[in-house]
Each structure stands twice: as structure tokens, then as C-alpha cells.
Amino acid sequence: MICPYCSSDKIVLRDGEYVCTECGTVVGYEVVPPRVKLATPVIKSRRIIALLEEEDKQTVKMKYSDMVKFYISKIARELGVAGIEQEAMRLFSVLDKRAYQGKSPRAVAAAVVYLATERARYHVHKRDIAALVNISKFTVRDTVSRLRRYVPATD
């Protein structure tokens, strides 16, 4: 930038104005682009819930026990074994809430269905049940061993 009056190239920026240091002439103003108002960030969980509601998912605002029952039905339907869903629902209803506290509803449902298949003397691999609800077979194993202590003995 050059001063139009004294042809000096000693221009500095002071208080938002370009000023010539030789003659003191204001050459121009600092051009500042307007500030873009940033949208307030949406909390991640609310964003996920909003996306799920857009997709019309049924499990968005269910109670924990309803979610477990939903997954029990899903697993039992996929396995196609008669009577497993009713037995799994019965086992889940007699479980103490503290037995599965802190566990994923998918893990609890998978474990309860596994215990129901054991009682019906029907062999299903833990990995097959785990694959249906997208969890690890080790999660199923750990949850089964945890819940087995709270399930009443077979008749």
C-alpha cells in the first residue's frame, strides 16, 4: 500500500485504520468481514434422538424393560424356536432389577434368551445370538454368568 499524498510505503494499521507514518494521512479502513453467527452446538444425544425420530424408530423413548422385551422378541423371532420367547419373557420378569443394572438392554435380552434356550434343552451358540443384536459373544457370556445367579432353578 502506498500513500497517495506523499508516495510513502510506510503504512501501519492503527485502531482499524491504515495510516501513513510520514504524513499522518488516513489511507483507508481495515476491512473486516462480518462475523458469522455460529449456531449453538446441539448435544450429541439429542442429535442422535432427533435422527432416530426422523427414521421413525420405535425404540427411541422406550423404558429399559420395554427395550429388553423388544430385543427378546427380535432374537426369539430370528431363532425361530417355539416357546423360547415366552420362557425368556418369564425369566426376565422374575429377575431382580439390580441383577442387570448397568448392562445394555441388548446384552440382557441376549443373555435371557440364551438362558431360555438352555432350559428348553435347545442348543444355540452365544455367537449366533450375539450376532442378531450386534454385540460380542463375550458380552453374552459375561451377562449370562451374572444373571444365572438370579434365575430360579429349573422345575
Automatic annotation (TrEMBL):
PROSITE patterns: TFIIB, ZF_TFIIB. Coiled coil: none annotated. This is Transcription factor TFIIB cyclin-related. Keywords: Metal-binding, Transcription, Transcription regulation, Zinc, Zinc-finger. InterPro entries: Cyclin-like_sf (IPR036915), TFIIB_CS (IPR023486), TFIIB_cyclin (IPR013150), Znf_TFIIB (IPR013137). GO terms for molecular function: TBP-class protein binding; zinc ion binding. Residues 1-28 form the TFIIB-type domain. Transmembrane segments: none annotated. Belongs to the TFIIB family. Pfam families: TFIIB, Zn_Ribbon_TF. It comes from Pyrobaculum neutrophilum (strain DSM 2338 / JCM 9278 / NBRC 100436 / V24Sta) (Thermoproteus neutrophilus). The lineage of its organism: Archaea, Thermoproteota, Thermoprotei, Thermoproteales, Thermoproteaceae.
